[in-house]
Amino acid sequence: MYNLFGRIYLFFFIFILSSCINKKNAVQDLIYTVNIDVSKVESLRYDDYFKKSTFIVLETLPESLIGEVSKLYMTDSFIIIFDKKQMAIMLFDIKGNFIRQIGKKGSAPDEYTFFNDIQFERETSLIYAHERYRNSIFTYNLDGELINKTPKIAIDFNSFCKTKFGYWVYSCFNTKNNPLGYNLMLLDEKLEKVKSSYFPQKKFVNVSDEPAFIQDELGIPYFFYPSSNIIYKLVEDNPIPWCRLDFGDKTMPYEKIVEIGSYEEYDRLVADKKFLGDISGFKVGNSIASFSFRETGFGIATKTYYCYFNFAQNKVKVIQNPFIEGMDYPVEAKVLSVLNKSFVYSISLNVCSDDSFFSLSDQLAKPISRESNPILVIADLKE
Known about the structure:
The protein has helices at about 1-30, 45-50, 255, 265-270, 355-365, and strands at about 30-35, 40, 50-55, 70-75, 80-85, 90-95, 100, 115-120, 125-130, 135-140, 145-150, 160-165, 165-170, 185, 195-200, 215, 220-225, 230-235, 240-245, 275-285, 290-295, 305-310, 315-320, 335-340, 340-345, 375-380. With about 375 residues, it is mainly beta. The strands form six sheets. A five-stranded mixed β-sheet has the order 1-19-18-17-16. It has a five-stranded mixed β-sheet with strand order 2-23-22-21-20, with no helix packed on it. The radius of gyration is 23 Å and the shape is globular. The protein starts with a helix and ends with a strand. Mean pLDDT is about 90; it is low at about 1-30.
């Protein structure tokens, strides 16, 4: 009888272990590897990806001037622009007419000094903004009304992503509340308690001021940070490795970077090596990921590259020209936002010729100059 029960126990143990292994392998199978070879630079031609495009001119007024499109959200009715350079949130209608700024800048209790990051929640039409100076989250509706403000948050962070499981934050600072220098933390819905922490670093070296979280067209969040070449998908309350950006023998030595104790060590590590990394502007949606990266060295001239990865077809396109070829105007290759079946770009007015301004003004029936607000390009993807 003992042997019978022992065999039954052993059978169930092996079955459970096998199930766990299969589950682990299933997760591992989700990881894409993007093999990037900068010796095979191609052109990003409009006709390769898109079937048509439309322009939206963002109205230029003294109160609506945009210095930088740091984040962009679009609905059927509104366009929300976060300009981190000016620390301003601006609301336009879908035709580009300026409606209002969200929040009032100042030192009064309900005013803000420094917005560091924002998130638009489509389900509730609410805007969450991180006030870095007070280390608090301000919540606004689209009428510009402040409807909530959290007490000061104990954990310092650079960017955030709100989900139903709490607030993911990109922390990265070695402080008394984060002595191990965790780059990723999940805080509770009140931003009071740390639920989990990931990716410790001996001492912060290459912090990113740009948002470390992005969402695809379905609202699924992803995370990336400077001391890694892995993009993580945030599944419920876990970061799952989703995509590895592999530059071969030019890949930065990330395992060493997280152990570095000073800026001098970092400089010595990358000096004259021409490693590839410094990933930024990562966007994903419609089976395509886009991002930029550059050579990272100390005391050397560096090159910037742009990459498109079709993970449905497992195809990589590396480009160095910062503009999309085959278009009438200089449209930047950097993706600003991903919509359901479109990518959002902008025309680079800084490099437009005088003839282009005349042509744009005539085509769009609006005066366009070098000082105008960005012109958005909504490029519809091919099926």
